[in-house]
């Protein structure tokens, strides 16, 4: 959503007051909420549609500058989050406040950068600031925009002391035009107030309460989700220019005909056009170029901003290990022209934008998910954007390492648990052929009421708008482990799914459910989904240590999910916390040996279920160890990773690699990497263990 300047600072105070409220304690009183009229289709209003927000890309008509680097940070007093508003810190440099200023890298979570536990555990507002220079020539026939990839959880932005934009719901981008706020040819100051407080009506939810400490009263944040509530400017900040009249948004969809002709349906939106404007677009040139720059299809339209490109014999986008050339992307190029009034037949280029696109089909039935008409079997991970020191901050080195590990282990998919991942992560998935279950930040949803529903819808709308053009996205996940067994969930999720399906852009809807397929705690979300996904920790949270109970329990439950709801089924989470280097014979919980034994039994269950044809995927929890809130049940965080937090393999990573490549060989006839076949002895009848 493009940022919107506020007509009054009272709205700012309103936002802060909403974010500053403590939890309301309304956890279980709302059973039966499905009767609330807001959940009736005719009585709820869809969120305001997001506009713009194309990823910043340079072209003949656009410049992009990064504002990443070292910023200055000021931490508000926990008991006085409004101090900076009262004292108008945004009007001058933060250094003039007399408060302690901390150098802070952007992008990064602020929590683990210093050695101060007060900043690590801070609840409330922090203030960021930096200066930047804008060249004088940018004022000529241009518009200047400021774009944030993500600030968690809520942000208000000022340029040179003047309000520019605000946004809530972390993990998603926002932007605003700031042309009229800038000093061209001079220095400018950007100030950002970030608030990390979560309430019963934010997405995700949390509660703030006040506790007495040895140093007085202080607010503390509590939440039920099992990952650390990192905060700050988590993704890149860009300054970019566009022409006055420019392409503001693009939507595409792709198909393949029976005679192998690819089809790309496109639509573009323009910004800056008015009836009395001297700049009036007259033509649009649309070209599709392959990797070698050769034009594969094109159209030249006169004042028509939607159309279809036909591509004979296209190179399709295929997932990793399903094709020798996975992740094939074309460049879809849009050029906006205006006819000259000088008597020539010439045209002036107004704007140009290039969008990477993959051509593929996606469909689903009551038993299958198909890509390019081929049934998929998903093998992958739940993940987290999490690393030492940086927290949830974008780290391109870590991103590259993660993609390499995903491919090394033979996975073909992951779920963005439990929030939208960075745009750079989505681009990597497109390029490498990794399929993505794209999940919004609604984790452990409870307290089903109208304001939460509105925020939940908005989170999904912004996610889908951002990621709708990515070939890698094969499904939208509307929630993770919601309290969907409560009666209040029925009407809530019916309204949510009805709305989301109306904007789903050709993808099925799913969720990661931890309720039951059967009464009395039967899931009220599953009936509305296209694919049923569930999380189950047999031999860990249930029946700890009993790996001999996994196969029967898992196969029987998966069968009930399919029988009760008639949908394809995925296991989205299974696993065991494992301390790297801890071994026990016989296997004992928390040891690497136990993790191997637990995985092995799950593999047996999966192979039984695969024969049923409606079981379409297995996802490990988790890709790598990650940080959580401090609790006696966690030793340094959640240790269910196949890899350590430093991205080094535990013993089970090698077992999982054998599993995933064996599946690739069976299902897609993929040659197994030679080094995966282990040499044992020249004295044995079989000198190698081979897949």
Automatic annotation (TrEMBL):
Biological process, per Gene Ontology: carbohydrate metabolic process; glucuronoside catabolic process
Stretches assigned to the Glycoside hydrolase family 2 catalytic domain: 367-661
A Pfam family of this chain: Glyco_hydro_2_N
Occurrences of domain Glycoside hydrolase family 2 immunoglobulin-like beta-sandwich (ranges): 245-360
Keywords: Glycoprotein, Glycosidase, Hydrolase, Lysosome, Signal
Catalytic activities: a beta-D-glucuronoside + H2O = D-glucuronate + an alcohol
MF terms in GO: beta-glucuronidase activity; carbohydrate binding
PROSITE patterns: GLYCOSYL_HYDROL_F2_1
Stated regulation of activity: Inhibited by L-aspartic acid.
Enzyme class: hydrolase
Any one cellular-component term (Gene Ontology): extracellular space
Signal sequence range: 1-25
Gene3D superfamilies attached to this UniProt entry: Galactose-binding domain-like, Glycosidases, Immunoglobulins
EC number: 3.2.1.31
Location, primary (coarse class): other
Span of domain Glycosyl hydrolases family 2 sugar binding: 64-243
Subcellular location: Lysosome
Family classification: Belongs to the glycosyl hydrolase 2 family.
Function field: Plays an important role in the degradation of dermatan and keratan sulfates.
Assembly information from the UniProt record: Homotetramer.
Protein name: Beta-glucuronidase
Taxonomic source organism: Drosophila persimilis
Lineage: Eukaryota, Metazoa, Ecdysozoa, Arthropoda, Hexapoda
Gene from which the chain derives: Dper\GL11761
């Amino acid at each position: 959503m493009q940022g919107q300047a506020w007509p009054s600072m009272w709205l700012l105070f309103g936002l802060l007051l909403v974010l500053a409220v403590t939890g309301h304690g309304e956890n279980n009183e709302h059973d039966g909420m499905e009767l609330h009229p807001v959940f009736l289709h005719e009585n709820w209003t869809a969120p305001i549609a997001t506009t713009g927000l194309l990823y910043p890309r340079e072209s003949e008509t656009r410049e992009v500058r990064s504002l990443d680097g070292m910023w200055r940070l000021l931490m508000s007093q926990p008991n006085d989050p409004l101090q900076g508003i009262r004292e108008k810190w945004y009007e001058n440099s933060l250094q003039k406040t007399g408060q302690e200023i901390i150098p802070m890298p952007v992008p990064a979570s602020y929590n683990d950068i210093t050695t101060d536990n007060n900043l690590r555990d801070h609840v409330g507002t922090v203030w960021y600031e930096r200066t930047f220079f804008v060249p004088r020539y940018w004022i000529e026939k241009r518009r200047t925009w400021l774009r944030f990839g993500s600030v968690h959880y809520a942000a208000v932005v000022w340029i040179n002391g003047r309000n520019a934009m605000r946004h809530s719901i972390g993990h998603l981008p926002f932007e605003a035009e700031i042309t009229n706020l800038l000093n061209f040819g001079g220095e400018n100051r950007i100030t950002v107030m970030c608030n990390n407080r979560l309430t019963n009506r934010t997405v995700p939810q949390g509660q703030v309460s006040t506790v007495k400490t040895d140093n007085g009263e202080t607010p503390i944040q509590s939440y039920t989700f099992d990952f650390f509530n990192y905060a700050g400017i988590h993704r890149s900040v860009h300054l970019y220019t566009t022409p006055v009249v420019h392409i503001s948004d693009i939507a595409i969809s792709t198909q393949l005909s029976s005679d192998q002709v690819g089809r790309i349906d496109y639509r573009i939106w323009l910004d800056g056009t008015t009836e009395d404007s001297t700049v009036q677009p007259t033509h649009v040139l649309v070209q599709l170029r392959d990797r070698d720059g050769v034009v594969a299809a094109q159209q030249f339209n006169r004042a028509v901003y939607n159309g279809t490109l036909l591509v004979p014999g296209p190179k399709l986008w295929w997932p990793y290990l399903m094709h020798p050339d996975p992740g094939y992307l074309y460049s879809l190029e849009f050029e906006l022209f205006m006819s000259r009034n000088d008597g020539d037949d010439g045209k002036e280029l107004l704007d140009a934008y290039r969008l990477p696109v993959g051509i593929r089909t996606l469909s689903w039935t009551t038993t299958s998910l198909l890509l390019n008409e081929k049934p998929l079997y998903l093998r992958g991970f739940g993940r987290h954007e999490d690393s030492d020191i940086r927290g949830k901050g974008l780290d391109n080195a870590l991103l590259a390492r993660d993609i390499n590990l995903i491919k090394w282990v033979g996975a073909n998919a992951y779920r963005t648990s439990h929030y939208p991942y960075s745009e750079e992560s989505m681009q990597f998935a497109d390029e490498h052929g990794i399929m993505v279950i794209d999940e919004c930040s609604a984790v452990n949803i409870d307290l089903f009421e109208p304001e939460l529903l509105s925020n939940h819808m908005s989170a999904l709308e912004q996610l889908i708008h951002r990621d709708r053009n990515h070939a890698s996205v094969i499904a939208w996940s509307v929630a993770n482990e919601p309290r969907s067994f409560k009666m209040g969930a029925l009407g809530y999720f019916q309204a949510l799914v009805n709305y989301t399906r109306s904007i789903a852009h050709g993808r099925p809807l799913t969720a990661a459910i931890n309720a039951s397929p059967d009464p009395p705690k039967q899931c009220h979300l599953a009936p509305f989904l296209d694919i049923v996904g569930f999380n189950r920790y047999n031999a860990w949270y249930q029946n700890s240590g009993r790996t001999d109970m996994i196969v029967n329990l898992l196969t029987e439950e998966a069968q009930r999910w399919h029988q009760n709801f008639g949908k394809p089924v995925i296991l989205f989470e299974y696993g065991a916390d494992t301390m790297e280097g801890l071994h026990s014979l016989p296997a004992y919980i928390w040891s690497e040996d136990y993790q191997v034994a637990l995985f092995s039994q799950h593999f047996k269950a999966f192979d039984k279920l695969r024969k049923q044809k409606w079981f379409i995927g297995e996802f490990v929890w988790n890709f790598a160890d990650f940080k959580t809130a401090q609790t006696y049940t966690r030793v340094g965080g959640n240790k269910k990773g196949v890899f350590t937090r430093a991205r080094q393999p535990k013993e089970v990573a090698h077992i999982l690699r054998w599993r995933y490549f064996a599946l690739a060989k069976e299902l897609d006839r993929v040659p197994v990497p030679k080094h995966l076949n282990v040499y044992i002895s020249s004295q044995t009848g079989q000198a190698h263990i081979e897949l």
